[in-house]
Amino acid sequence: MLLLFQREEMGSLQILFVLLLSLFLAKCYSHEQQELLHCLSTYSESNITQNIYNPNSPTYTSILEYAQKNPRWWNSSHPIFIASPRTEAEIRPVILCSKKIGLQIKIKSGGHDYEGISFRSESPFVMLDLSNLNEIKIDLNEETAWVQAGATLGELYYAIAKRSKVHGFPGGVCFSVGTGGLISGGGLGSLTRKFGLAADNVVDARMMDVNGNILDREMNEDLFWAVRGGGGASFGVILAWKLKLVRVPEKVTIFSIHRKLNSSRDLLQKWENISHQLPENLFIRLLIQNGGVERQVELFFQSQYLGPVDELIPLLRQYFPEFDLERNDCFQENTTAGAVKRCYEVSWIQSAFYFYFRKITSPLEVLLDKTIPTQKHYYKGTSDFVKTPIPESGWEMIERTFLEEAGPRMILEPLGGKMNEISESETPFSHRKGNLYNIQYTVGWSDNSESISTQKMAWLRKLYKEMEPYVAKSPRTAYLNYRDLDFGTNQEDYSYSKAKMWGEKYFNGNFERLRSLLVLLSSPAIQVRSLTVFWVSNCQFCAIHISFSMVEVVDQDTSAPRIIDVGNPLYIHPFDSVGASLVPIPFDGVGYRSWRRGVLQSLS
Ligand SMILES: Cc1cc2nc3c(=O)[nH]c(=O)nc-3n(C[C@H](O)[C@H](O)[C@H](O)COP(=O)(O)OP(=O)(O)OC[C@H]3O[C@@H](n4cnc5c(N)ncnc54)[C@H](O)[C@@H]3O)c2cc1C
Ligand SMILES: *[C@@H]1O[C@H](CO)[C@@H](O)[C@H](O)[C@H]1NC(C)=O
Ligand SMILES: *[C@@H]1O[C@H](CO)[C@@H](O)[C@H](O)[C@H]1NC(C)=O
Ligand SMILES: *[C@@H]1O[C@H](CO)[C@@H](O)[C@H](O)[C@H]1NC(C)=O
Ligand SMILES: *[C@@H]1O[C@H](CO)[C@@H](O)[C@H](O)[C@H]1NC(C)=O
Ligand SMILES: *[C@@H]1O[C@H](CO)[C@@H](O)[C@H](O)[C@H]1NC(C)=O
């Protein structure tokens, strides 16, 4: 617990508290730490013990700090070990030993999870930090790339840009986002209208299951389907993606247009009407935020055209004469970020800089930046999909609500184009034809005190509630990658009907297929069939967990199906090969582990 003592701002009471806590933890965890180390050392084929960090290791704090892109939980939950494997082979002992000891595993690639579920848990856990597994192999003849799942988007873009000026990948905006999390949750970005989601451009994947076996597409087509939008951590550890690279022109045009919301209602409506129907090469997303001192709600149209300025200008004249963008505007020196219009003709990789608010003249190396920001930024986010334009009254409400808050933001990403051509069941991401755009809501703060964070989150929840009449209904849908645990977790209530509520928000009809897949995966010892089960890819407390209340199993001896009504919630760790048990499993980590030892003893 050294890291806690290193933080200088603490008062003496807090120090006392931390001291007591660390004594408690030291007592409680040392046994597991020893057990884990001992277990790992029995796997001689790998060097994993050299890449394991406990809270006393000097590197532990910096790895964890880098991991926590949303540091809201910094003071509340830490892994008892961080495992940072340098080869795929080192992952297997981590899985098998955690499973043996009964520790949870949290899989962390880029650490951008909005709710922090890749780096926190209420139970003792090991954080599997994949960021050293970031090798990228590009095959320009085949126009594909094998990308290890710990690689960031920036690392992927960098590797592509080093090799080709006319290839790109439809990833997302933020360079430090992990390909592990982004692609397994879908992946929206400025190329989505032309090429679909990141997940739509995966041609193969390698993953490790709970028994340490490596699977690829050919070996398990169902799993391959699931991890392209269904979330990775519910199914295993994704080791690498094989991605289809896409062709981009040598010259692309980026432009942004600033407006005030209160004087641009018509423009806003027009954007809603047509942004999803524009030619696929034209992507115009909309950021809505508060304009600093003036306290005005601002619109910021951030756009990309896959082609030169001279093609774009006539298109805009046709679709958005209101932007009043002229050829001249695109060849200005010294335009400032706050300018009403900005436009540049650039390479595709420079357009990525622009979307991430970096200078377009930046060196390629900005893509690789992994520094830990000195200024902490805390946030909460959520999302919606929109199927019909929001009426005047909706925008009035949004403007009113935005003016109550200092750090709100909505990002509206148009869909349509390629997204309309892909069927809802092609991947778990079901939000295809009929959806006009996605809304991402966020609120940020820089003082993480209880009172501030509570107030900020209350504001976001209020906005989310007020948006209800204007967004997709039955179910009100959401995007998994903008994870919001307000939709539910399996924390208290284990009913299938509740899990279905948030499962269908993320996946609509695909929820059932994901669920049935998980059930089969979870218990290799007994074949579990259709169940009243709910499953928890966004469970607050677990990376890979499933719970059952009614279970249909196939008897090993007679092959006859049997329904087991477990009555109380039953917790099954998919790392278990022992399958279902009739005993409700204690929820907390200590109870779980003693339960597990009991089961193992009874089997041996
Ligand atoms: C600043 C910022 C910008 C963003 N921009 C975009 C954007 O442009 N487009 C977009 O679609 N999304 C965007 N997102 C959302 C982002 O896609 C998700 O937060 C995504 O889950 C992050 O992936 P990660 O690997 O960085 O996160 P992590 O926190 O490491 O992982 C997220 C989830 O995936 C699981 N996971 C990660 N790696 C693996 C693996 N190898 N195997 C199995 N499971 C794994 C984790 O256990 C966790 O459940 C953004 C988020 C932030 C914070
Ligand atoms: C283990 O580590 C040593 C020294 O760090 C290295 O020489 C060796 O190649 C590693 N072995 C494996 C299997 O990675
Ligand atoms: C952790 O707690 C300390 C003491 O209360 C506080 O000063 C600090 O800001 C907290 N850190 C985070 C990241 O919340
Ligand atoms: C928009 O808001 C500003 C600042 O509150 C105000 O001065 C202006 O008159 C408003 N414009 C319209 C069209 O309502
Ligand atoms: C948007 O579309 C609606 C319905 O087709 C139409 O009534 C409205 O005038 C359009 N608004 C704008 C600004 O284009
Ligand atoms: C742009 O800025 C540079 C450096 O400040 C200056 O030398 C140049 O004259 C400016 N160009 C224009 C068109 O204002």
TrEMBL record:
Listed pathway(s): Alkaloid biosynthesis; nicotine biosynthesis
GO-annotated biological processes: alkaloid metabolic process; nicotine biosynthetic process
PROSITE patterns named in the record: FAD_PCMH (PS51387), OX2_COVAL_FAD (PS00862)
CC cofactor: FAD
Pfam families according to UniProt: BBE, FAD_binding_4
Gene Ontology MF term list: FAD binding; oxidoreductase activity
Domain FAD-binding PCMH-type: 75-248
Signal peptide: 1-30
Keyword GTP-binding in annotation: no
Keywords: Alkaloid metabolism, FAD, Flavoprotein, Glycoprotein, Oxidoreductase, Signal
Highest taxon of source: Eukaryota
Stated role: Involved in the biosynthesis of pyridine alkaloid natural products, leading mainly to the production of anabasine, anatabine, nicotine and nornicotine, effective deterrents against herbivores with antiparasitic and pesticide properties (neurotoxins); nornicotine serves as the precursor in the synthesis of the carcinogen compound N'-nitrosonornicotine (NNN). Catalyzes a late oxidation step subsequent to the pyridine ring condensation reaction in the biosynthesis of alkaloids.
Family: Belongs to the oxygen-dependent FAD-linked oxidoreductase family.
Listed PANTHER family: OS08G0158400 PROTEIN
Name listed for the protein in its UniProt record: FAD-binding PCMH-type domain-containing protein
Organism from which the protein derives: Capsicum annuum (Capsicum pepper)
